[in-house]
Description:
Order of helices and strands: HEHEHEHEHEHEHEHEHHEHEHEHEHH
CATH superfamily of the largest domain: NadA-like
Radius of gyration: 19 Å
Strand order of the largest sheet: 2-1-3-4
Low-confidence stretches: none
Amino acid sequence: METIQDRIKKLxxxxxxxxxxxxxxxxxVQDIADMVGDSYGLAKKSAENKADVIIFCGVxxxxxxxxxxxxxxxxxxxxxxxxxxxADMVTAEDVIKxxxxxxxxxxxxxxxxxxxxxxxxxxxxxxxNAVNIVRTLEQQQIVFLPDANLASFVAKQCPEKEVIAYNxxxxxHKRITPEEVLxxxxxxxxxxxxxxxxxxxxxxxxxxxxxxxxQIIKHATESESQKLIIGTEEGILHKLRQENPNKxxxxxxxxxxxxxxxxxSLQHVLKALEDLDAGISENIIExxxxxxxxxxxxxxxxxxxxx
Length: 307
C-alpha cells in the first residue's frame, strides 16, 4: 500500500523538487526532507541547490528568503498561514524612519524579517552568525532588528560596537522564565543547559552554552555529558535524539512550542505537490522583482561574510 511518504517522494522526483525543513518542524516532516537545518544552513541550501522547486517547511520569512536567493525557482510554503509574530513586529516603514534617526549606522536585520524589511537593511544575519556579522562591519554604530534579546547577546559579545536594539522578540523564547529554568536545573544538577540567544538575557545568563539550533545540536552531540537541558523550541529534540540515541535530552519548559512552525504537516506537503502537479499555484511564494533585488543584497552579504 502506497504511503503518504511514497506519494510525496514520487511527486517530488517528478517535479524536480527539494524539500527543506527547519529543526522546529514536526518530526515526520523532518524525516521526509532532503535537508533539515537552521535558518543559516537552509539559506545556503536555498542558494546552492539544483532543483526547480523548493518545498520550504518552515515559516513565511524563510520561504521568502529562499525565493530571494533563488528567484528563478518555484518556492512553495506548504502551510501559507505559517507566519512569524516577531517578523511582523517590524515593517519597512519602521526601518526607513530609523535610518533618518541613525544615518551613520549599519542596519542589520535578523533573518526573521519580511522581504520588504530585508530590502531596507545593509546585511542580514541568523543566530548562528550574528556576532561575526556585527564584528565584520566597518560601522561603529549598529541598528539591530527586530529581536532585542539577540541584540543584547550580540552587544555583550561585541563591546567595541554600539548596538541599538529594536524592541521585538520571539513570543516562544521570551515566555520562558529564569524560575522555570532553575527548577529544571535543580532536578538535573549535573546536566548542562544549552540555550538559544532569542531567550531573555536573564535566561541566557543561566546557560552553559548559547547558540543557534544547529550550534546547539553540534555542541550536544560533541558533549561528554549524557544528560542535557535544551532551551529552545521542542522540535529540535527530534534531531538530537536521532543523532544521540544514548543521551537524555530534557526540554527546559513544556511551553517551548511554536504553533506556527507546527502548521506544516505531511498532508500539507503532499497537497502542495499535488497542487503544483495540477497547475494550482496558491502556495507559491511571489515577491516583487525590486524587493527581491534589494533584499538579495542583504542576504548575499550575509552568505559572503559567513559565520
